[in-house]
């Protein structure tokens, strides 16, 4: 794969690409792990693996369009398994916006080091929860509980675990 | 134009995708979310994933079983000893509970209450969840092919879990009771206050619509009320952990489910619930001590007299068969004992006559019945042997009445048993009830027992204690 450079105001930022198997199977496996493993373990239920994968692909490819498409696909996949009371599109909308925002951010800042990954995962997780809350509460009129402390702790857990997940997913990067 | 599209290409794509999803959301919200229509896309996705996941979970369970059942048996001997001791202790408790249960069934039969029985269940394994905190859907490895249908109750021995909301060929989705879209008819076990158990988006379950002037204590058990027509009545739901004044006039009662909903692995899907009267055959034979106690002579109550000192007319109405045919209509009060003053002798008729679909079930009372019976039929006698629905045919009941056996007529009010320790105060058992179709008509033309001195044999050919 050719190396495609992206010049920003600061320096040259690498844009990575992925093979089709990785593009298809990594999100799929993430959703399945989320549904069949993490969801069954109470203290890991707050961990959102599909969300992490969305951010990873978005910041690695640094293309807003592919970022929002990836987020949309992963979110809809997550919606599929969320039950009949959960209309398709709730996670789709949230992850579409997250994918777009993460890839746009990836164009501007370096997201390769663990510190920046921690911060963007933390911030985007809070944003993700907020968007989901807005969709559920605002568009669908569902009664949702919002707890800042719960969101903060969940975001922290996702940010910490995200560092290791990103490190693992780095292996699938192609230049 | 090209410049505009090129410049805002990313944003336009984002807006288009979001717009499409919002439209899709709107379409879905327009339809009932739980109306039973499954989106094809959802069906395909779940059908594709379920077999793989089922295989993985079963393999994992198999390995786990091998490890636990063969490899890791440390402490089993000690645990076995403890369990044996526990069994011994529970046997003693069981005997007591069995007696209580028999008595409860007698009362139910007496009051013509229909009981709901969990008839058949299908064991299923939880193979997955929704994977999000906002939706608490569980996936089971059993579906349409196993007889699972929508709205079936899902339970564990510890308590209820939820109900089936969607069924696929080989899997199904359960809406747990702590989901925000769940609602279960529930009642407080001791006070019998009823409400609706609702979940929430953070998984907290609350019992709603209990008035704030009611007294509810933490620790009180919550059971299903059966009002939702999904869960049979009386299944454990959870325990009250906190009670606070809520909005409006209702209490905010927080309930912790009995079943560990976050760790549930195996469940039972209730595929059939039957409603039937308690089976009188289950009640067991009448104890000799009961019969003996009931045959003990008692002092008949004095007849009720009016101001002139004459017995009130028609006072025998509503009393059951003694050897003296009681006639007349009216209220059976104390004078019921008059009509059955010979009731110390064995009665040949059915001692009680059940009043179907009424609260006025027949009660064999000892001594003076505090009866408010005002039946339309008046006297209930059974000079002819009435067929009973149990093992004990009416008319052959060796159940002499020590006092007045009261019998309520259809649509009669409840006959209150007289207070006292006499065993005759216990409610008549089901097989002593007489179906209305086989109940004899009241009237003087009825033939009393030709040989009242000769008691009929008790069931099972036993001789009644003399």
Quick tags:
heterodimer, A: 175 residues, mainly alpha, two-stranded antiparallel ribbon, 2 strands, 5% strand, globular, disordered N terminus, B: 466 residues, alpha+beta, Thrombin, subunit H, 2 domains, six-stranded antiparallel barrel, 6 helices, disordered C terminus
Would you kindly provide a written description of the structure presented here, covering whatever features stand out?
The complex is a heterodimer of chains A (175) and B (466). With 175 residues, chain A is mainly alpha-helical. Chain A is 65% helix and 5% strand. Chain A has one domain. The longest helix of chain A has 26 residues, at 114-139. Chain B has two domains: 114-276, Thrombin, subunit H; 279-466, no CATH class. The N and C termini of chain B lie far apart (111 Å). With 466 residues, chain B is of the alpha+beta class. The model of chain B is unreliable at 314-466 (pLDDT under 50). Classes of the chains: A mainly alpha (175), B alpha+beta (466). At the A-B interface, helix 1, helix 3, helix 4 and helix 5 of A face helix 2, helix 3 and strand 1 of B.
From the alpha carbons, calculate the radius of gyration of chain A and give it in angstroms.
Answer: 16 Å
In terms of structural class, how would the helical and strand content of chain A be classed? mainly alpha
Helix segment tally of chain A: 6
Low-confidence stretches of chain A: 1-11
Number of helices of chain B: 6
How do the SSEs of chain A run, as a string of H and E?
Answer: EEHHHHHH
Short characterization:
The complex is a heterodimer of chains A (175) and B (466). Chain A is built from six helices and two strands; from the N terminus they run E-E-H-H-H-H-H-H. Chain A is mainly alpha-helical.
